[in-house]
Design a protein that fits this description.
Layout: E1 2-8, H1 28-35, E2 41-51, E3 54-62, H2 67-72, H3 75-92, E4 96-99, H4 111-115, E5 120-122, H5 125-142, E6 151-155, H6 160-169, E7 175-179, H7 183-197, E8 202-204, H8 207-213, E9 216-219, E10 238-241, H9 250-255, E11 260-263, E12 266-268, E13 271-274, E14 285-287, H10 288-298, H11 313-325, E15 329-330, E16 334-335, E17 338-339, H12 342-363
Helix pairs in contact: 5-6, 5-10, 5-11
Length: 364
């Protein structure tokens, strides 16, 4: 039996209510003020993971800080708390630990954490990229969008996930735009892509302008607040929101019935899995970053796998192959914590066609 652990944290103060219902109605500032002093703890046992060749069990370890606190509190304080969570994983018997959500991006993206632990560490970003790209391919197919000819936009392109997504997509599409706040890093990435693929990508720091012309968007920024609003998108656009907290406002789903918003990186885990906690998913499904830790355990690949700010296409390809070997697969389309039925996707497609035709007539 292989053993792993995964460190998670509440994205917002309200998320803590899933584990502790009595805090649901407490003010956010009071919850954040309280949890800052709570040490990491075991949240639940994970059982029943079974691939064709192995079995695994593990634990969710809670690091009680919200996304905002991860970004605003002193970096040294946050990293020390993440390391303490990793030490709990060690004591429980885990051989590899995954860093979830903002624990994977604070400081040097896991390198310092790994240097202070005696077990392997991964951020899960490699499999997150693999599943996001596969989700986009499938979504484009059902929406009748030729991905090769589409205007594709990567938000947060200079981050490790965004950069890897951009490098992979550059081999498949003709029109690729990269958006991020750091213009120097954007130009450097664009030059690297041109050198390796021959594709001249567009770069911009004007996110709102880029959104209005994009057919397919992969959103992977580390912004704490929503970046994409209903008025930003063209009819029929596909948005793959990989970011946690979300880059897409919930208002998009409420007001734009002609837009397909999917959650990137949601996978089905093999076996009769019990996670011991409700994080808003159906049985046997999890984030890809969680799944990467499970895959490494099942493969007995106890090594630091995805760490730091650099993520290679080779790493993405490797973990994608291992995922298939052990029976992990993309879990359909999900949007804002729920499954999208085929008839809903069909309705979105029909609405997009109708709205595009209306806009065309108005222009004429």
């Amino acid at each position: 039996m292989e053993r792993f652990a995964f460190i998670l944290h509440p994205l917002t103060a309200k998320d803590l209510g899933r584990k502790f219902p009595f805090v649901k109605n407490w003010p956010d500032h009071f919850i954040e003020g309280l949890i800052k002093y709570i040490p990491p703890f075991k949240v639940s046992d994970i059982t029943g993971i079974q691939s064709p060749g192995n079995e695994a069990e593990g634990w969710f370890i809670g690091c009680p800080l919200t996304s905002r606190q991860m970004m605003e509190l002193p970096e040294e304080y946050v990293i020390k708390k993440i390391i303490k969570a990793g030490k709990i994983a060690e004591k429980l018997g885990a051989n590899v630990v995954g860093l979830g959500a903002f624990t994977s991006i604070v400081g040097d993206a896991g390198v310092t954490v790994a240097n202070n632990l005696n077990i392997a560490v991964t951020t899960g970003n490699s499999y997150t990229v693999a599943t996001a790209i596969e989700g986009v391919r499938q979504a484009a197919k059902v929406m009748d969008i030729n991905i090769e000819q589409a205007n594709v936009l990567v938000l947060g392109a200079t981050g490790s996930i965004g950069s890897a997504c951009a490098q992979i997509l550059a081999k498949e599409v003709r029109f690729l735009t990269l958006a991020a706040r750091n213009g120097v890093k954007l130009e450097r990435l664009a030059g690297y892509i041109f050198k390796n693929t021959g594709l001249a990508v567009r770069v911009t720091s004007n996110i709102k302008a880029a959104l209005k012309t994009a057919d397919i968007i992969i959103a992977v920024t580390s912004a704490v607040d929503s970046l994409i609003e209903p008025e930003d998108l063209k009819p029929g656009a596909i948005v793959c929101d990989v970011a946690r907290p979300r880059n897409v406002s919930r208002r998009v789903a409420e007001l734009r019935k002609d837009i397909l918003v999917i959650e990137g990186g949601i996978v089905e885990v093999p076996g009769q899995v019990n996670f011991g906690i409700n994080f808003g998913f159906p049985d046997r499904t999890a984030y890809a970053c969680m799944a990467e830790t499970m895959i490494l355990a099942l493969e007995r690949r106890y090594e630091n796998f995805t760490l730091g700010r650099e993520l290679t296409v080779k790493q993405v390809e490797t973990i994608e192959q291992l995922a298939k070997k052990h029976g992990f697969k993309l879990s359909g389309f999900r949007s804002f914590e729920r499954a999208l039925l085929p008839e809903e996707v069909s309705m979105i497609k029909n609405n997009a066609v109708a709205k595009s035709e209306t806009l065309r007539r108005e222009i004429i």
